[in-house]
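Predict the 3D structure for this chain.
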Amino acid sequence: MPDGPTPPSPQNSPPELRSRLVVLAGPTAVGKGTVADCVRRNHPDIWISVSVTTRRPRPGEIDGLHYHFVDDDEFDRLVASDGLLEWAVVHRTARYGTPRAPVEEMLAAGRPALLRRNSNPVAHRSGGVQAVSVLGDRQPQPFAVSKVPEGSARLRC
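Done. Predicted structure below.
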């Protein structure tokens, strides 16, 4: 039997902590994807949200794994139908957003969720500029983590 308390996990955490939403925010290219990949490899119990974007895929990116690539009309439909928790225009060229339904489904099922968000642009949420909470008054409120540039240091998992 190991010494000390059992480390927290979704199975042995109190119910109010099981469906926790963590928002990983940071500027473009700071390493949010690297952190999310590390979480995916080391904590498969944590569900990682896949953002929607209007930009074209980069080499090696897979639709549905790295992003959901959509055209402007589909993005407009998602905004109009309240299908996004939040969305933003990044570098005045492409829109990015977080699909609402999968996040709410995972949290309702008691699965912890990680959401990546660009902190550079002004983001929008259901009729206004986004506040810190992407879920408004809904519970549980997200736990926010900011990723800041570390000079020339490389992220490692």
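The CA atoms of residues 30 and 149 lie 6 Å apart.
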